[in-house]
């Protein structure tokens, strides 16, 4: 069986790219197609595959300004001829469907999210656009939304990464989907015997992650928080920090990350995420998560077992929940927390994906 994997762009390793790695494990002979590819930023596991780019990859400065070529991506996909493949798996949170395939071939879409900037986060993204980008978005985005819905109709099987995303697929694409959560390599994470007196944030610094809420909360609560990560908002959020107990580390290597996860009092997760792999990694390390009560976190956080929810995206609401957590954090059992996310191990993911695709092929 000839298999192709289509991923919107391969310019850094994030949650979507980790899922592509697991798909590569399932289909080691698969070819990979993407709009833009930066080999130096992508893992060896993915780089071992034959990787081909659409016409976007040949356009000037596409590795840096690929998002500016968004209006051309439907055309680039339409020109992509995948008729030699029996099974095509698209990994979607940017445009990765609308290609040519044989009538008797199957298209499975693993959907991390319908494109956020086209749908429910359109206004939030629009606020960051310059004048020209706003004009282009007003003209192009309605057309892209129509294209998005139309091309979704031709997918044979849609797999959503969470119940939150499954509902968005139903709302925007008017399609049914199966939910299979993204995996982790469960064995890679261990429980520490020593818990340090700090809270942890591990995230890219972009507006929808709501790290500003954490900083405002810790400006007043006299507690220590370590913030791992970088992004476009790094300078902005650093300026918000008034307490010496707010520590920015930038990105750290995987081994250091595991140490910070396993020794923190709790991970703070203030944004609305489609799923969120870092909370699963934290709980696999035996530590609880304090999360905003919305989005993918609703699929895996069990209150007073592996974490707590706060109700409003405000520093006051977060601080109130931290105070509650401080009064009972010793009641959280590291082994129980770790056990609660065993079902997110990669072996379960492989079995579920294989089962769904087998049903389709048979």
What does this structure look like?
37% of the residues lie in helices and 15% in strands. The chain is α/β, with parallel strands linked by helices and 362 residues long. The chain has 2 domains: 3-183 and 345-361, Rossmann fold, CATH 3.40.50.2000; 186-342, Rossmann fold (3-Layer(aba) Sandwich). The chain has a 7-stranded parallel beta sheet. Strands 10-9-8-11-12-13 form a 6-stranded parallel beta sheet, with helices on both faces.
Question: What tags apply to this protein structure?
Answer:
Rossmann fold, 2 domains, globular, single chain, 362 residues, alpha/beta, 37% helix
Percent range for β-strand residues:
15-25%
The CATH architecture of the largest domain can be named as 3-Layer(aba) Sandwich
The tally of structural domains comes to 2
Question: What is the CATH homologous superfamily assignment of the largest domain?
Answer: Glycogen Phosphorylase B
- Overall radius of gyration: 21 Å
Order of helices and strands: EHEHEHHEEHHEHEEHEHEHEHEEHHH
Per-chain topology:
Blueprint lengths: L2 E5 L7 H12 L4 E4 L9 H4 L3 E3 L8 H4 L7 H6 L8 E6 L13 E6 L10 H5 L4 H22 L4 E4 L2 H11 L4 E2 L19 E4 L8 H8 L6 E4 L5 H7 L5 E5 L3 H10 L2 E4 L7 H8 L4 E4 L14 E4 L4 H14 L5 H6 L6 H16 L1
Parallel strand pairs: 1-2, 1-4, 2-3, 4-5, 5-6, 6-7, 8-9, 8-11, 9-10, 11-12, 12-13
Helix pairs in contact: 8-12
């Amino acid at each position: 069986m000839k298999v192709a994997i289509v991923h919107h762009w391969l310019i850094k390793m994030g949650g979507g790219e980790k899922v592509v790695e697991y798909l590569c494990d399932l289909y080691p002979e698969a070819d990979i197609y993407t709009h833009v590819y930066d080999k130096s930023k992508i893992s060896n596991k993915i780089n071992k595959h034959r990787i081909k780019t659409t016409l976007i990859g040949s356009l000037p400065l596409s590795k840096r300004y690929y998002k500016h070529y968004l209006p051309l991506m439907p055309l680039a996909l339409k020109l992509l001829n995948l008729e030699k493949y029996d099974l095509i798996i698209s990994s979607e949170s940017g445009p990765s469907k609308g290609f040519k395939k044989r009538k008797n071939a199957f298209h499975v879409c693993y959907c991390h999210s319908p494109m956020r900037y086209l749908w429910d986060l359109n206004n939030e993204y629009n606020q960051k656009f310059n004048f020209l980008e706003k004009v282009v978005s007003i003209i192009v985005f309605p057309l892209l939304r129509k294209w998005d819905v139309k091309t979704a109709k031709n997918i044979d099987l849609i797999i959503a990464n969470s119940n939150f995303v499954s509902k968005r697929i139903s709302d925007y694409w008017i399609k049914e989907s199966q939910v299979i959560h993204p995996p982790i390599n469960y064995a890679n994470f261990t429980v520490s015997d020593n818990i340090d007196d700090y809270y942890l944030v591990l995230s890219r610094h972009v507006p929808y992650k709501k790290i500003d809420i954490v900083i405002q909360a810790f400006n007043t609560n006299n507690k220590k928080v370590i913030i791992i990560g970088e992004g476009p908002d790094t300078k902005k959020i650093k300026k918000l920090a008034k307490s010496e107990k707010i520590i920015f580390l930038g990105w750290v290597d995987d081994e250091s990350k595991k140490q910070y996860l396993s020794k923190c009092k709790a991970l703070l997760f203030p944004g609305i995420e489609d799923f969120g792999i870092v909370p699963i990694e934290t709980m696999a390390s035996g530590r609880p998560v304090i999360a905003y009560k919305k989005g993918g976190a609703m699929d895996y956080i069990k209150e007073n077992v592996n974490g707590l929810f706060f109700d409003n995206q405000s520093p006051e609401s977060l601080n109130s929940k931290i105070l509650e957590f401080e009064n009972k954090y010793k009641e959280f059992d590291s082994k129980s927390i770790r056990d609660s996310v065993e079902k997110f191990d990669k072996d379960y993911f492989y079995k579920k994906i294989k089962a769904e695709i087998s049903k389709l092929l048979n």
